[in-house]
Amino acid sequence: MVQAYILIQTEVGKARDVATTIKEIDGVAQVEAVTGPYDVIVLTEARTVDELGKLVVSRVQTVQGITRTLTCSVVHL
Asked: Alpha carbon 20 to chain centroid distance?
């Protein structure tokens, strides 16, 4: 299992809509609206790195209201 956090910046006033939409995407384990430089943080899970990449590029980044994403893969030290 591969996990990653996606840090999301949204258009002004769109954080709630983005979070609500992303919660419905398969592979999304958790969604939180936050304060600071990012508006929404998403924990994703996939079987492989390739599946994770497809999830981020084709499903998450296409959500209306998102202006920028930063994907941070989880590593187990």
From this structure: 12
CA distances from 9 to 49, 50, 68, 76 (A): 23, 23, 5, 26
Domain extent listing, the chain: 2-73
Q: What is the pLDDT of residue 54?
A: 95
Predicted confidence (pLDDT) per residue in 12-21, tens digit: 999 999 999 9
Enumerate residues 6+ apart whose C-beta is below 8 A from 71.
4, 5, 6, 7, 56
Residue 22: band (very low, low, confident or very high) from pLDDT cuts 50, 70, 90 = very high
Which pLDDT does position 77 carry in this prediction? 93
Q: How many residues does the chain have?
A: 77
What's the rounded Cα separation, in Å, for the pair 36 and 56? 22
Q: What is the CATH number of domain 2-73?
A: 3.30.70.920
